[in-house]
Specification:
This protein has a two-stranded antiparallel ribbon. Helix 3 packs antiparallel against helix 5 (about 105-130), helix 5 (about 105-130) runs antiparallel to helix 9 (about 220-245) and helix 8 (about 205-215) packs antiparallel against helix 9. The protein has two domains: about 1-245, no CATH class; about 270-305, no CATH class. The chain has helices at about 1-15, 20-40, 60-90, 90-100, 105-130, 140-160, 165-185, 205-215, 220-245, 265-280, 300-305; strands spanning about 45-50, 55-60. Strand 1 (about 45-50) and strand 2 (about 55-60) form a beta hairpin. The chain has about 300 residues and is mainly alpha-helical.
């Protein structure tokens, strides 16, 4: 089990690392998205509701947009990479299971690889944001980005095992990520402080990032809520993946050998030929002779012999 798990984790990580398009998007899209959205909004005050503490804080709208831009970029990228990796490896995973690989090892490997990628992407987005704004709680914003990436990595896993085609999966990921992160920002959405947003996946990471980046607070309840979203998506995705995996084929036991195998056709033919030859006197005797005693021989009449 341990060897299978190590091998499956290496294969899952290698499949994600070989996605060159995702690496290009990660290196270029994240800073460009920061620059684009940051240039559209000025340094104006915005009221943000921290529901975990029941307070409203006034924050810099430009810096708040940078948090939203980071969340939007990493959720899209993480969900895309996990979704693509799951879709590409479906047939290979089926062959592994049919050849005796344990489904539990594959499921654990998918989960571990997705979490490793989420941590890496979240840390990268936090580092890039430092070139545009240095929040008071840098590590808090970094943790919030990792939490958001983990949520959408699990969502990418769930979408990858549910939808039938790639187009449907990409559409779902884009729409969910854009709406989810956009609605959390009061700068672009006047309804951002409504209670309904508590039921959105990025609510916890956004609250965690704003509280740490602007108000020097660590909201443990928001981190727990983010982990709950991650666990829910991951559990649903892994259950569906396990149900759709084939059952390993069992090798049929060979049939027991008989005590006396039936003679083949050639052997039976040879036995009959030997019996006929023995009855006729065997090879080397005249055709008219037989191997029977003289009193049992049938002698043809002279006319028949002459003819």
């Amino acid at each position: 089990m341990r060897r299978q798990l190590d091998t499956a984790i290496r294969l899952s990580l290698a499949g994600q690392v070989r996605n060159r398009f995702a690496w290009i998007l990660l290196v270029t899209f994240v800073p460009v998205w920061y620059l684009l959205l940051g240039s559209m909004f000025g340094h104006t005050g915005a009221a943000f509701r921290l529901r975990a503490t029941g307070t409203t804080v006034v924050v810099d709208g430009h810096n708040l947009i940078l948090i939203t831009a980071g969340l939007n970029s990493i959720t899209l990228l993480t969900a895309f990479v996990v979704f693509a990796a799951v879709r590409r490896s479906r047939l290979f995973d089926r062959r592994l299971v049919l050849s005796g690989y344990r489904p539990a090892a594959l499921i654990a490997a998918k989960t571990s690889a997705a979490l490793v990628q989420a941590v890496a992407v979240g840390a990268y987005a936090a580092i890039v944001m430092l070139f545009f704004w240095r929040p008071s709680g840098v590590w808090t914003v970094a943790v919030a980005f990792m939490l958001a990436a983990a949520i959408y990595a699990a969502l990418g896993l769930l979408v990858g095992v549910l939808v039938r085609g790639d187009l449907e999966g990409f559409f779902l990921i884009i729409m969910i990520s854009l709406l989810d992160t956009f609605l959390q920002n009061p700068v672009g959405n006047p309804l951002a402080n409504k209670s309904i947003l508590e039921f959105f996946p990025s609510y916890g990471p956004t609250q965690f990032a704003v509280a740490g980046g602007f108000d020097h607070r660590v909201l443990a309840s928001m981190a727990a809520l983010s982990l709950a979203w991650t666990a829910t998506f991951a559990l649903l995705g892994l259950v569906v993946m396990r149900l759709r995996m084939p059952r390993p084929t069992r090798m049929m036991a060979p049939a027991p050998a008989l005590d006396r195998p039936a003679p083949s056709t050639d052997t039976h033919h040879q036995t009959l030929t030997a019996a006929v030859a023995q009855a006729s006197g065997g090879p080397g005797r005249n055709p008219g002779e037989s191997g029977l005693p003289a009193d049992q021989r049938v002698v043809p009449p002279p006319a028949a012999r002459a003819g």
